[in-house]
Amino acid sequence: MLRPLNTLKLNNTVNKSTFAPLVVSTLFILLTSLLAHCARRFVQKSIKEPFVRLLLEEAIAAAELCGCCFELIIVADNFGVATYAIFLFALTIWWSLNWGDATACPYTHIEDVIEGRGDIRKALLKIWAELTGGLLVFRYVQMYWTLEISETHKNKAYEDCTADLQVPVLYGAIVEGIATCMCRLASRSLSDINPKFATAIDSFIGTSLVVAGVLYRQTVLTYQYEDSSANADLSVSVYCKVHVGKAFDYSGGYFNPVLATSLKAGCEGHTLMEHAVVYWLGACAGSILSVYLYKLPVIQKYVRGTTEVNGDSIWADKED
Length: 320
Prior knowledge:
Layout: H1 19-46, H2 50-98, H3 106-114, H4 120-146, H5 169-193, H6 198-215, E1 220-227, E2 236-243, H7 246-250, H8 257-264, H9 272-293, H10 297-304
Antiparallel strand pairs: 1-2
Helix pairs in contact: 1-2, 2-4, 2-6, 2-8, 3-4, 3-9, 4-8, 5-9, 8-9
GO molecular function: channel activity
Subcellular location: Membrane
Keywords: Membrane, Transmembrane, Transmembrane helix
């Protein structure tokens, strides 16, 4: 549901002479959120059939997500990662509090089918609604950008886009899958532990993952271990190198198929089939894997270990 941008520029200073464009971007995001909120309230009051209402709410949520993320690209490129992080953190809290049962994320419905909480037909319809909302919102964004109210929007409306996929398709799909799996495991754990301020914690974790991947994309962590003692029969040497944030260099790190399709489908650098394999098949496979990994005893032991038998959370300030 979040937008990890491969195209973010590490510009951490805000020039006061260009502060006006930030106001323009802020107003656009506020306008988009307000329109989505009004549309959501209208649907809730006027549509009586629950499933039809949910389909429309999914479309609205996806449109709001993608519309705001288009503008977040502008914010990040011109005002730095810190400003981007503040916007994203605030938006994720807003979305969590206002979307209700809508998720704007296709693989959550697949998880529901696997766990017996939904059927395939309804899941496909929800995905269709999300994809429709995510694709249609670009016309709204393009109309706003065409006005070129600020310098940061100049020539953006019809600018050619390039794909974020920088590696072979299979490799990109694996990266998206593993990252999505990790995100879903963290989300499930937090949901079951249910600490106080869970929404804020979840938003902070999601924002941190995005920002860390951008800030430390070139960082390499190394670990070396040697055992060459005189009494040893065998000398052992282990060297491990981890490239932090490489998901953003490899595939863009979207972790949401609808978001990736809205922002990058049809861009130069990959075909639609390659896009589908990486951002749909890869992400959904990672999500499905998380369902089964979460049931492993080692993970369940950790989750259950955070709650006493009487139901009182070990999180000191949480009210049960």
